[in-house]
Each structure stands twice: as C-alpha cells, then as structure tokens.
Design a protein that fits this description.
- 10% of the residues lie in helices and 32% in strands.
- The chain has a single domain, classed as Jelly Rolls (Sandwich), CATH 2.60.120.
- The chain is mostly beta strands.
C-alpha cells in the first residue's frame, strides 16, 4: 500500500502539535518529572514494592515523593530495638538509632545525619525487634546522597518469632529462611542508566492492607556497586507503620 502525505495532512499535524505539547506539559506539572528508577525491586506473595527517586537537583529535606509516603513520626519503629546483626557501622556516620529517630538529613551529603556501613564492606544486616508481634501496614525506607550512596539494595525478612529453631540474629553465612524467617521483598533501586544520585523512597505494602503479623524484621543490606569502596547506602530513616 502506498501512502501519500498531502498538504492538508501536514496542516492538520501542525495544528495538533501545540495541543500535544500542552498535554505533555500538564502531565509534568501534575505528576512531576519522569525519573529513571529501576524496576528490579519485587515482593513475595501479594505484597507490593513501590520505589521512587527524586533527582539530586530537586531533592529537599522534606522527602516528599509522589507515591511513597513522607516519613512519619512517631511510628512502630520509634520504640523498637534496632541491632547491628552483621557488618559494622562507619564511624563517620550516625549511630544505628538514627534510623528510628524521625530526624531527617538536612542535605544530600550529610554523613553524620545518616547511617551507613563501613567503607569497603558489602553492607550488613540490621535487626528490628518491635517488642511484640503486630499487624504491619507499611515498611518504608529512605536514603539520600549525591552519588552512589543514594540507591537502596536490600532484602527484607520478617518473623513472628514462634517458628521452631528461630534465630533472631542470623550471621552473614546463615540463610534466614532456614532459621524461621520469611522473605518479604527484594529491593534494588539502582537506576538502569545515568547518575545514581538523589533521594530514594521505598514503600512495602499489601493490597489487602496488612503486610503481615510480625515482631521481627531483618534488613539484609548490600553495597550499590563493586568498583568503589565508598558505596554503602546513606540510610536516612526506616518507618514501620502498624495498624
């Protein structure tokens, strides 16, 4: 079939072009800039993982995302017991308690206002004891840095602590699934291309409203790449929202 482009068709296209441009600009205003966020994050069962990124030039201390909830204070993590199960804290960063304090970093490169693992280490495991089993609605994690320390890479496990042989602090070589833990989600927010700097928010939820009835959570965190030593994520806050 042979197609012929007429002057009338060209004129119609030129008339429609401003309308298309206007609609696109309206989308940007209403929904914000389209950012390149990895789709590698996934959840198990009926759970849902939403990951968002605010590019470095537009991030603010308010951590305001389009879909991921803004950090809340207080939440179930505020009174929980956080422990460093494996790995070591970088002494240039904040203590582990920073993750439950509710105080967010004031800028994109603020080591003393973020928790991160030692340089050169491949992350580590953070344990959270909520003191009692409860219905969890959301698990939200936040990070912020100018470059490679911005993205989040971790696996989230959970347990009510009643399984036979349950181990609340599985070492680095011990698979949590073999000692009473359940894998809830695998999170990886590294961009597919381009600079990784910026503010990242992750929200793990369930369409049914309840992620599960758990007392213990385990964050198995990994570094964001293998070339540089300084690539352990600047974690700013962990929120656990209970029913």
């Amino acid at each position: 079939m042979k197609w012929t482009i007429t002057k009338k068709a060209i004129a119609a296209a030129l008339v429609a072009l401003p309308v298309v441009i206007t609609l696109y600009l309206m989308f940007i205003v209403l929904h914000g800039p389209i950012t390149n966020v990895s789709r590698r994050s996934k959840a198990t069962g009926d759970l849902k993982v939403v990951a968002e990124r605010i590019v470095a030039t537009e991030a603010t201390p308010q951590f305001k995302f389009e879909t991921v909830p803004t950090p809340v204070r207080p939440n179930a993590a505020t009174s929980a017991r956080f422990t460093l199960v494996t790995g070591g804290r970088d002494l240039n960063g904040a203590p582990l308690g920073k993750l439950q304090s509710g105080f967010l970093p004031s800028g994109p490169d603020a080591p003393h206002e973020n928790f991160f693992f030692k340089d050169g280490a491949d992350g580590g495991r953070i344990g959270v004891d909520l003191n009692q089993a409860m219905d969890i609605q959301q698990v939200n994690t936040y990070s912020w840095h100018t470059t490679d320390r911005g993205p989040q890479v971790y696996k989230l496990y959970a347990s009510d602590g009643t399984a036979a042989g349950f181990n609340p602090g599985p070492g680095a070589t011990l698979d949590p699934l073999t000692v009473g833990w359940k894998l809830l989600a695998s999170v990886d927010t590294r961009p597919k291309s381009g600079a990784p700097g910026g503010q990242y928010g992750v929200s793990i939820t369930s369409p049914g409203g309840i992620v599960g009835h758990y007392r213990y959570l385990l964050f198995d965190c990994k570094r964001t790449e293998d070339v540089d030593r300084w690539v352990n994520t600047f974690y700013s806050e962990i929120d656990i929202v209970a029913k």
